[in-house]
Design goal:
Elements: E1 2-7, E2 10-14, E3 21-27, E4 30-34, H1 40-52, E5 59-62, H2 72-75, E6 81-84, H3 85-93, H4 97-109, E7 122-125, E8 129-133, E9 136-142, E10 151-155, E11 160-164, H5 181-196, E12 200-203, H6 211-229, H7 244-258
Parallel strand pairs: 4-5, 5-6, 6-7, 11-12
Antiparallel strand pairs: 1-2, 2-3, 3-4, 8-9, 9-10, 10-11
Helix pairs in contact: 5-6
Bound molecules: zinc ion.
């Protein structure tokens, strides 16, 4: 697990697996944790890491309901998890799915987890909408297409944009169950102006971007979606995202489109 200060009020924690990012953000006396690292030891260390850096969270929020983003309560069982309304709907439609997928992935990676995931009481947030942090306001923008739910979180006062699973330098666009190509395209179009207005752009997976890098990834992702829509079996994947695992995601995307 790595912690990088991206701004005096932003600390990005990156897990050892899938480079999944958790983002701690503070405004005045209050702090919030967005998404989560994965491994039990990372989650166990997280309260001390955040407290030591002055980011002890008062609230938890997740960009979407995929199992690798909703683990914050394992580190902070006293806090409720805030989810966008579409994510809450998804949880109700797929009861126990996040817990099951986490268990399966733990089996796959031989991870011993002290206790099963308990999502507890979930706080529903309006998307589009906003949520308060201290005296500031976080904007919640719809970001579906990767899945049926999802939101991008914009902290305009400090130039931070948290994307969830979009514009990653390590992962191609992934149309996973519940997602769709059309919704993905609409989300990319919506993200453009947000990226233009941001200084620090944090994807769900992989390195933090400056604005120009995020805009380049956006272009690459639109090109990739075009190739996907044409049904190309072996399109040229974006540089740095063209290895074996990404090819597998492409095959899975083709299957989603045909389903
Ligand atoms: Zn993810």
């Amino acid at each position: 697990m790595r912690a990088v200060s991206a701004h005096p009020d932003v600390l990005v924690i990156t897990s050892r697996v899938w480079q999944v990012n958790a983002i701690a953000l503070r405004a005045g006396e209050e702090a919030m944790l967005i998404d989560s690292p994965y491994f039990p030891d990372e989650l166990e260390a997280l309260p001390d890491v955040l407290a030591g850096a002055g980011f002890e969270p008062d609230a938890l929020i997740a960009t979407h309901a995929d199992f690798d983003h909703v683990l914050g309560r394992i580190a902070f069982p006293g806090l409720a998890l805030g989810l966008g309304e579409p994510s809450v709907v998804r949880l109700h439609q797929e009861p126990g799915a996040a817990q099951r997928e986490l268990r399966d992935m733990d089996d796959h990676l031989y991870v011993d987890r002290p206790a099963p995931l308990a999502l507890g009481q979930v706080q529903t947030l309006p998307v589009p909408g906003s949520v308060e942090l201290g005296s500031e306001e976080l904007e919640l923008h719809p970001a579906d297409g990767h899945t049926g739910d999802g939101m991008a979180i914009m902290a305009r006062w400090c130039g931070l944009l948290c994307l969830g699973d979009y514009l990653s330098a390590v992962e191609i666009p992934w149309i996973s169950p519940g997602g769709s190509l059309d919704a993905y395209r609409a989300t990319l179009a919506r993200l453009g102006p947000l990226v233009e207005a941001a200084d620090t752009i944090v994807p769900g997976h992989g390195p933090i971007h400056a604005r120009d890098v995020a805009l380049r990834l956006l272009d690459e992702d639109v090109d990739y979606l075009d190739a996907l829509e044409r049904g190309e079996e072996r399109p040229a994947l974006p540089k740095g995202r063209d290895k074996g695992e990404q090819r597998k995601i492409h095959v899975s995307n083709l299957e989603s489109l045909r389903a």
